Amino acid sequence: MPFDTFYNLPEEKxxxxxxxxxxxxxxxxxxxxxxxxxxxxxxxxxGSFYTYFADKYDLLxxxxxxxxxxxxxxxxxxxxxxxxDLKQLIMGLHKYIFDLYQNETNQKFIFNVLIYFxxxxxxxxxNKNQPLPDLANCDDVFQLLDLKxxxxxxxxxxxxxxxxxxxxxKTNIYNTVSKKLNFQNSKKSLEEYLNILEYGYRxxxxx
Length: 207
What we know:
Tetracycline Repressor, domain 2, mainly alpha, single chain
């Protein structure tokens, strides 16, 4: 994550660095991202960059953490609008991510980050102390839900269900990007998998 020197910068300068970074990560897979290009487009020196971030991985962590904060806000709004229903919260988050994906820069950023890290096991990343931020924190989601919707009352089981739901969403996003699905097909696929989770795979779902 950024050093304090980054947060002490004027907002306009921080925004310029962020915009340059998003463009570079959108234009290139992680292994080819150039700090030189980022600092050139940001109009800062390479030395200054390293007073803000440890390296390009640290910068990516910050970009994804910022996205995660937006996701958290959307989830909070979705939980209120959908009365704390897990399935509907996931569907609302899916629409938010899909809408973001319509922007070409966001589309390329998601492709390069999601697809690349799904298919490459870089030794550089294995040795990092900071893992990539997950899409959502299970504890945060737990607090947003109406627990009466679950047939079990055990907190660990509910959190396992949340984990499965978000795993389904992440797989859906991956498939949407890699197969270039439109919104309706992506939504339909997600709903089908969430229905299986909601009703279970045994017995009569109408029971």
